[in-house]
Amino acid sequence: MSGLANLQAACAQPLAAAIAARAAGQRVVAYLGSSVPVELIRASGAFALQLAGDPVHETPLSDLYLDPEYDGEIRSLFDQIGAGACNVADLIVIPRSANGLLYLYYSLLELRRLEPGRDFPELLLYDVLNTPNWATARYVLGRTRALHERLGGTPDQLRRAIEQANAVRGALHALDARRRAGRLLGSSWWSALRASRVMAPGDWFDAVEALASETAPARRLMLKGFGQDTPALFLLAESLGANVVADDYPGGTRSVHTLVDEAAEPLAALAEHYQLRVPTVRSTPQAREDAAWLALLDASTSQAVLFYQEEFDDTLGWDYPAQQALLAARGIPQALLGRQSYRSPDQVAQRRVLGDLLERMSA
Amino acid sequence: MTAPTPTRLASTLAANAHQKAEFQAFRRRVLEQGEPYVIADAVAPHEILHAMDIHVTPVVWYSAIIAAKQLSPHYFAQMDACGFHDRLPRYTSLPLMSTLDGDPERAPYGGLPKPMMILSRYRDDYGQRISQLWAQAYGGVPVFGLDASSSASLGPRWWERGLRDWESVYETHRLDFQVEQLEGLIRTAETLSGRSFDQLEFLRQMHRINRAGELVAEIRDLIARARPLPVPLTEQLANVMAPTWNRGSAWSVSHLEAFRDEIKALIEAGAAACPNEKLRLLWVGNGLWFNTAFYRAFEEKYGAVFVWSMYSNFLSDGYRRYFDEEPGQALRALASRHISMNEQLHVPPWMADWIVEQARAYGADGAVMLVPTHDRMGSFGSRLTKVALERAGIPVVELHANMVDARLWDGPAMTGTVERFIEERLMG
Fold first, then answer.
1. Residue of B nearest to A289 (CA)
2. For residue B97, what are the domain limits?
3. What is the pLDDT of residues B130-156, one digit of tens each?
4. Helix (H), strand (E) at residue B368
5. In what order do the strands lie in the sheet with A122-126?
6. What local confidence, expressed as pLDDT, does residue B6 receive?
7. pLDDT at A104 exceeding the cut of 90
8. In CATH, what number does A216-362 get?
9. What is the pLDDT of residue A361?
């Protein structure tokens, strides 16, 4: 298989590498989101597996136990975990990096109480907070130390895990540069990023190294908003003659933008990194967040921005009017895909909105 | 022999008059004398500011006032005009819309003047955004954000264990963090106001809050045991919420004593909120602030009376904290008060277990659950709580509506839903 095919296969079968690792005798620790220090998991000798939402499957458990306004990603994860589909993991670490994830944690605990016969992995809350305050930093350091104590691992193992995770980030930076240079499709970038969270690092490096140069469409788009559990919007843009050369959503480019400081005390470095350097929907103040994605917009020379909000968004809509104004001041066209269904989006409408935006970009 | 309860209790009239007079007096002091005041989340430590004699306006209190005065449609039209989409949270943003509207003639009590500070607790993902927009709308005021740590486990019977065993219930590492934040808040409020934190006054107020909680517990027992219900839910809300917002004041204690005495007298006189009481209902979830008459809509036809909502006795179960006579302990006790309020009111198992307990205490036959539309912080735990109540033998009907947005309320449809529930599940 080609490098890209390997990455895409890992995304299509995200548990496959973890199952193989477990069969080989390795412990598997799963995690949600992008705010759990994978370095701590790997330093403990465990295989680190990111669980993500999957819009393909039905969610009967969520229909029974969760209110309708939960985000699609959370409903999907509730069903996957609650139904035992993630039992390859010995433990699932859930970060408090979004309200939905916190409620998922509590809802799964309640599911276990209501249905004690259900078999799914032990859950662990990593109470990482993203407010840029000193008191918060001390709290997050305490929680990071507690997570390390729970998982285990020596200081040397931790340093090596940080170096390895930074190497992954560095490789992703190189891929991002190729994307900006028009030699990598946005959908391939998405696959490489997602695969880095479900594959064994060595296998992932091999696949990335074998990734052939691609010719991307000339028009350059930024995608911003909710997290993307599939490459669907990237592929839609490519089908319309545009490449997503930059993105700003939880778990996207900015989540791997900064390296962990290898010179600092490892736990302090990790705590600082996941508090401040991996943006989440809770990152604040908004002016700083806006400055960060505008810098990304400039660096990528994106010509337009496509905003994406899910059906029951209660958060990003507060930012949108001011962000529209910021783009208008720069003369950058934008469009909004609002109220998007997670499981069954109106693809015709999506195509129309994006098509209109690309026309304005060309005008 | 039963007699109808008076339409408005003397206590209710006193509570309403006190709230209105307090607000108008505060507004004069702010506008005419330049006194500082703070706009604060409901689940924030107002006690710190009260101990410095700084007025606090709770966001959801003002939101409920706006809704009760039927002004929410106007302000939500303003929200639409600003480009905020119509599924964004309403409950905590409605007062911001009144500020953006900028018309003190229209706003209840003349609107909210520029505060010294906005105090926000970052329990959800959007509160910080609303606070920042609000601060900008005032031309720039400081936002003090309290970070919201989370419990790893929600153990049994918080409403009992939390009174004295709060150190273990709310976890030492979380309390350490919250105390540090409270100390930061004290220093910030001192700097901005030029006033000092009065430690002895703080202790006095903390004790008064415990006394108020004891009175509310006493009132709860009186109401829960009485047959028929002596006072309608609307009267309970008015008389408990005013002391909750004014907690720590001498008025709050004396008012609750008067309310308790009035209830005792009503019970002795055989008063009935609904003389043909046949069914006792819980109201689960936030209040329906623009239409509190709905709480009484099923009395005449079905003898169905709402006996409880989460506001009835949360001042007792959620606020009381007993502590050693040492100032540091009082601050730590305060730290434990707010760090899990959301879990107590909106997150199973804490939400569910507490409500099941109330259902038993009040002898409830069923529950009407407000599942907030487009205010999902208040709805995330609803379905699991419904499951828990149903398993405990309490039938539940869901009403999908918003607590302050009258535009989303379909009166005939909601009435029909509850009537079918009563007929099919409670009387069938």
1. B129
2. 10-150
3. 999 999 999 999 999 999 999 999 999
4. strand B366-372
5. A47-51, A28-32, A91-95, A122-126
6. 79
7. yes
8. 3.40.50.11900
9. 85
* CB burial string B406-416: b at 16+ within 10 A, e below: bebbeeeebee
| Band (B159; pLDDT cuts 50, 70, 90) | very high
Q: How many CA atoms lie within 13 A of A51 on its CB side?
A: 30
* Same domain as B302, residue B243: yes
Judged by a CB distance cut-off of 8 A, whether residue B192 touches chain A is no
Dihedral angle of Cα A110, A116, A117, A123, to the nearest 10 degrees: 60
| CATH number for position B293 | 3.40.50.11900
Residue the block writes with tokens 């507490």: B354
Chosen for mutation from B78, B79, B100, B383 (greatest number of chain A CBs closer than 10 Å) is B383
- Among A65, A67, A282, most B C-beta atoms within 10 A, so best to mutate, is A67
Over chain B, what is the mean pLDDT?
95
pLDDT (tens digit per residue) in B327-358: 689 999 999 999 999 999 999 999 999 999 99
SS3 A306: strand
Neighbours of B4 (CB within 10 A): 10
Of B281, B354, B384, B323, the residue nearest A113 (C-alpha): B384
Say whether pLDDT at A123 is over 90: yes
Overall number of domains in chain B: 2
Contact (CB, 8 A) for B244 and B315? yes
B26 min Cα distance to partner chain A (Å): 30
Tokens of B309: 């909502």
3-state SS class at A339: strand
Treating both helix axes as pointing N-terminal to C-terminal, what angle do B94-101 and B59-68 enclose, rounded to 10 degrees? 70
**Nearest Cβ partner for B125 among A69, A282, A309:** A282
For position B346, what pLDDT does the model report? 93
